From TrEMBL:
It is found in: Cell membrane; Bacterial flagellum basal body. It comes from Neptunomonas phycophila. Role in flagellar biosynthesis. Keywords: Bacterial flagellum, Cell membrane, Cell projection, Cilium, Flagellum, Membrane, Transmembrane, Transmembrane helix. NCBIfam families: fliR. PANTHER family: FLAGELLAR BIOSYNTHETIC PROTEIN FLIR. Pfam families: Bac_export_1 (PF01311). It is a multi-pass membrane protein. Belongs to the FliR/MopE/SpaR family. This is Flagellar biosynthetic protein FliR. The chain crosses the membrane at residues 12-30, 42-59, 79-99, 120-140, 146-166, 178-202, 214-234. InterPro entries: FliR (IPR006303), T3SS_IM_R (IPR002010).
Length: 258
């Protein structure tokens, strides 16, 4: 019979569950895996597998002391770190959804919305197209492996054994909305500018020929030219994706800087 002391069991439980809370909260908050399309049991199983792989190479965390206040604070810190990393990655994906919304409103497709099956909210069709395109590019460029490497590296920068909330820069998450809208504007600027010139031309035509029914030809023509401009702008989409992705990774890294 193996004699297992209570202290050994507490060490094993602490070594597993403290990193588990950070990894599980990260998977629940990140896009793709944290969406409604992935069942809760699958996300929980993936968190258990990732924790089992990382625990042998992590520094030993402190032993949980029952229901003490330090235990709750340490668990809350792990949940906060994982949620912050996942939410920052979620903002990166929403940049392209907002950009698609700006383009769709300019070309007259702002009313054409559909339910996003991943998040359960209504998104314009063009924004949903950009979200699908970004997801495919993210997976094709091994972005998921980079993100898993980030969550593993976070245990070296911010160890689970240290109870320190000041090292997590939460203000960077609050200011991430600035580059959310700036990135969306940068992505949609070529198409929006082209459509603005087209609408300006229609305004001049209306001024020159008031009897011309501009609404009868302007709306379908603007929509058609908007689709053509969107198709032409896809050639430079990869460059915009790389720029925004680099900035998003820099923001995620800045969250864990000491």
């Amino acid at each position: 019979m193996i004699d297992l002391a209570q202290l050994n069991i507490e060490n094993w439980v602490s070594a597993f569950f403290i990193p588990f809370f950070r990894i599980a909260s990260f998977l629940m908050a990140m896009p793709m895996i944290g969406t409604q399309l992935v069942p809760m049991r699958v996300r929980l199983g993936l968190a258990i597998v990732m924790t089992a792989v990382l625990v042998p190479v992590l520094p030993p965390p402190p032993v949980l002391n029952g229901l003490s206040i330090d235990t709750y604070l340490l668990i809350a810190q792990q949940v906060l770190v994982g949620s912050a990393l996942g939410f920052s990655l979620h903002i990166f994906f929403q940049v392209f959804a907002v950009g698609g919304q700006l383009i769709a409103n300019q070309m007259g497709l702002g009313f054409a919305s559909m339910t996003d099956p991943a998040n359960g909210v209504s998104v314009v069709v063009l924004g949903q197209f950009y979200l699908m395109l970004v997801t495919l590019l993210f997976l094709a460029m091994d972005g998921h492996l980079i993100i898993f490497n980030v969550i593993a590296t976070s245990f070296e920068i911010l160890p689970a054994a240290v109870l320190n909330f000041s090292s997590l820069r939460l203000m960077d998450i609050a200011t991430a909305g600035t580059w959310l809208f700036s990135g969306a504007l940068l992505m949609s600027l070529p198409a929006v500018t082209s459509l603005l010139v087209i609408n300006l031309a229609f305004g001049i035509m209306t001024k020159a020929a008031p009897q011309l029914n501009i609404f009868a030809i302007g709306f379908p023509l603007t929509m058609t030219l908007g689709l053509v401009i969107t198709w032409m702008s896809l050639s430079g989409f990869l460059g915009q994706f790389e720029v925004i992705a680099d900035h998003a990774l820099a923001v995620i890294q800045s969250l864990l800087e000491q």
